[in-house]
Predict the 3D structure of the following.
Amino acid sequence: MGRVRSALVRPWVIGLLVLAVAGAGFGLYWFQPWKLWQDETVREALPGSAVAAPAATPSAPASSAPASSAPAAPTTLASGRLISHEHATSGTVKLLRLADGSHVVRLERLDTSNGPDLRVWLTDAPVKEGRAGWHVFDDGRYVSLGKLKGNKGSQNYAVPEDVDPARFSSVSIWCDRVDVSFGAAELARA
């Protein structure tokens, strides 16, 4: 009788173990918890910053024509401070217009947690404190400016040419995997 009972229990136990291992594997893939201990720091220069003029070479002497002026500095159209949502987040956000008329969202001194599938979103949603603000950014209009390059540092995100940045009022560090904001900033017009 003991052998019959253990033969019946064994497939059930094995099935349960297979489900537990599969569930754990899916959970690890989905949430990628190890990223909470991995920092990626990005230090991009402010776009449109002055570029050094090419030096004269023996085969091409320096021109006697007056040197062209440095490119115009970017114009800050709006800015704001990041507040924390799902994860502690700090830093500033600037919406810049470059000399060529293009637009860039710049994150400066960003400090947040790393996570799976983080994006930078330009949105029309209001920035709300606490849990009330965690899920509002996909309720209205938003434009994904791309994957977050790093969870720390300063970085630039080009706004597509066909997007009017004046139609958006906030920026969110959005986890596309679990549909939650890590942090966001209300853009105050300059």
